[in-house]
Design brief:
By secondary structure, this protein is mostly helical. It has 16 helices and five strands.
Length: 446
């Protein structure tokens, strides 16, 4: 009985070894001639046999020698074919982060779109207000961003982003690079448009001439910066199609230093973000805010700081941007951080308007407990008017009580109520009551 079991085990081991050798030999037959020569040379210098699949797949020095030789002796397409065959034969795990990228793109795209639409709907429909330049540019940013979300899902994820390039067909790789080119141009335009929306918002809430001149200078610089990088991104290769055809090294053309373009754009954008955060922070020392508004302003600028941090993280992912041999996998981080940066920036730009909507829906929890007293706020802040009513009554003999009531009414459509510049008057004033309806009692003894 033991002899029979031993014979069965030997037969199974021989069958498995024969199948493994057959699989290895079949894979070797599919290799391009240049790769087969590299494999034979490397095996000769290694302790592995030509049919020893386990040794060939686990010997790191042998694999490194074969890969180096293939890169020098074979074309790009032959090298990818070789990599696909060897990784499949050795049972390497198939990596795929496409689903995560698709989920992030759709989720953030929907949230940012809802924020912008709520902002515009509230102003145009509910309050019948006029759109400012900041509203117009945030709307343009959304229009520019919707194609990016679609491309993320139907272009990038559908053509291999988050997968190893050797697992993809050659036409799929070309499509991937083509969609990446379009996404790059859209990204440069969205960064500039988003900054313009924030800068025009600053113009509405800061009335001082020096700061307004500073903001206008920043607007001009940002516009020139955006136009320059968009045009450079469009014409970075000659012919333009060389951008997505150059990966196989079978086409002729010329491109500028793509790594330098990405680094320059990211660096200038980060410096501009820091500058744009410094402008309102320099004005906060002149503002006297209720604690609820301080929380609102702090939240807005904290989100703005987060966008700057995301930009820095994206900058780190550009280290091997144009020099990667596995771009569909390595560029996942770049695309992911770019998507997060733009969408979170849009949400940040809509926070003041969303706060006004929440104040109207939940006035007791989020409403302001202070009213503007300053001529600057009356001019540049939310529109308000005061209605006074006076009555006189005789409450007791010899005493006349005069009661005067003021009702302060605020417009609901202006999110500049987020910051009230109560301390900008040249002369100090007495503090007012915290109530929205103030009663003044004047008594005179007769």
């Amino acid at each position: 009985m033991r002899t029979l079991i031993s014979l069965l085990l030997l037969l199974l081991a021989w069958s498995a070894n024969t199948a493994a050798q057959g699989s290895l030999l079949s894979a070797i037959d599919q290799l391009p001639p240049c790769a087969l020569e590299c494999l034979s040379t490397a095996i000769t210098a290694s302790p592995c046999g030509l049919t020893n699949q386990t040794c060939i797949c686990t010997n790191q020095q042998l694999q490194s020698s074969v890969e180096t030789c293939v890169l020098k002796s074979c074309t790009v397409k032959q090298g990818l074919t070789t990599k696909n065959i060897t990784m499949t034969t050795c049972g390497a795990p198939i990596r795929n982060k496409t689903g995560i990228y698709r989920t992030i793109s759709i989720t953030l795209g929907v949230i940012s779109a809802v924020c912008v639409l709520l902002r515009l709907f509230y102003k145009l429909v509910l309050t019948m207000g006029e759109l400012g330049l900041d509203d117009c540019f945030i709307g343009i940013t959304l229009i520019d961003g919707v194609p990016s979300t679609i491309i993320n899902v139907r272009g990038m994820a559908a053509n291999g982003l988050g997968k190893d390039i050797w697992t993809l067909s050659f036409p799929t790789i070309t499509n991937f690079v083509r969609w990446f080119y379009i996404l790059e141009v859209l990204y440069f335009s969205q960064v500039s448009l988003l900054k313009l929306s924030l800068l025009f918002f600053y113009l509405r809430i800061f009335p001082g001439k020096p700061v307004r001149r500073l903001i206008w200078a920043t607007i001009i610089f940002n516009t020139l910066y955006g136009v320059a990088f968009v045009l450079t991104a469009i014409f970075q290769c000659r012919p333009i199609s060389f951008y997505w055809n150059s990966w196989d090294a079978e086409h002729s053309g010329h491109c500028i230093n793509i790594n330098a373009l990405g680094w320059a754009n990211a660096t200038i954008s980060i410096v501009l973000d820091i500058w744009m955060l410094a402008i309102p922070m320099s004005q906060l020392i002149h503002l006297k805010l209720a604690w609820k508004k301080k929380v609102g302003v702090a939240m807005m600028f904290c989100v703005g700081t987060f966008v700057t941090i995301v930009s820095i993280l994206r900058l780190q992912s550009l280290v091997h941007f144009a020099n990667s041999s596995n771009p569909t996998w390595d560029q996942w981080d770049i695309n992911n951080w770019s998507t997060v940066e733009i969408n979170v920036g849009v949400i940040c730009a809509c926070m003041p308007a969303i706060r006004v909507i929440l104040v109207r829906l939940f006035p007791k929890a989020l409403g302001s407990t202070r009213n503007a007293t300053n001529q600057y706020y009356a001019k540049y802040g939310s529109h308000s008017r005061a209605v006074g009513h006076g009555t006189s009554t005789a409450s007791q003999p010899g005493v006349i009580t005069y009661t005067k009531t003021f009702e302060v009414q605020h417009g609901d459509h202006d999110e500049t109520r987020l910051v009230q510049m109560d301390d900008l008057s040249p002369t100090p004033k007495e503090p007012r009551s915290n109530s929205s309806e103030v009663s003044l009692y004047e008594r005179s003894q007769i």
